[in-house]
Specification:
This protein has about 170 residues and is an alpha/beta fold. The protein has seven helices and five strands; from the N terminus they run H-E-H-E-H-E-H-E-H-H-E-H. It has a five-stranded mixed sheet with strand order 1-5-4-2-3, with helices on both faces. Helix 3 links the parallel strand 2 and strand 3. The longest helix has 22 residues. The N terminus and C terminus are likely disordered.
Length: about 170
């Protein structure tokens, strides 16, 4: 959004988009039309990372919107790093929509120490979900991503407050 771009410009930082819809299987002009339709309340919707901050907010909003067929799995029920398990799950459950909010995360120290491991695992999760969706014929995915620049930035409290409002979290930013 404009706020994030302005914050990044002010501090000479790159800014990433918060979410991006990925169209994996576009079959026809008719499919393009249905891509723009709102989901029906009984459509199966898989939220990867449903127990995390972003994923739980997505689940909360879907429930508030009256969506009744929300599929969630814990890490022990579905290892998103296992491509075969992801493919089997998506082929079996056939969700119409996938919200990708799963990620390997840690605090500032862990992010610093395990940079390559976190990046590798997050890319593997994303690749497994995108490829599994493609193979299962699922065409609607939304990927949520976030970046923490540094807590010392002047714009950080406002950015955190904007994120809290977007995700439905009423806690004030410090």
């Amino acid at each position: 959004d404009d706020f994030a771009r302005n914050c990044g410009r002010r501090h000479n930082l790159p800014v990433a988009s918060v979410s991006r819809e990925v169209r994996v299987n576009r079959k026809s002009a008719e499919d393009e039309h249905t891509m723009n339709e709102a989901p029906r309340r009984d459509d199966p919707i898989f939220v990867a990372g449903a127990r995390g901050m972003v994923g739980s907010a997505i689940v909360r909003r879907l429930k508030q919107g009256g969506y009744r067929n929300i599929l969630t799995r814990t890490r022990s029920e579905l290892d998103l790093l296992d491509s075969n398990a992801v493919k089997a799950f998506l082929a079996r459950e056939q969700p119409n929509y996938i919200f990708m909010a799963a990620a390997k995360v840690g605090g500032i120290q862990a992010n610093n120490v395990y940079r390559a491991q976190f990046l590798y695992e997050n890319l593997a999760i994303e690749a497994n979900l995108i490829h599994g969706a493609h193979e299962a014929g699922i065409s609607r995915l939304l990927m949520a991503a976030s970046i923490l620049y540094a807590a010392a930035l002047a714009c950080f409290p406002a950015a955190r407050k904007a994120a809290a409002v977007t995700l439905g979290d009423a806690r004030p930013a410090p």
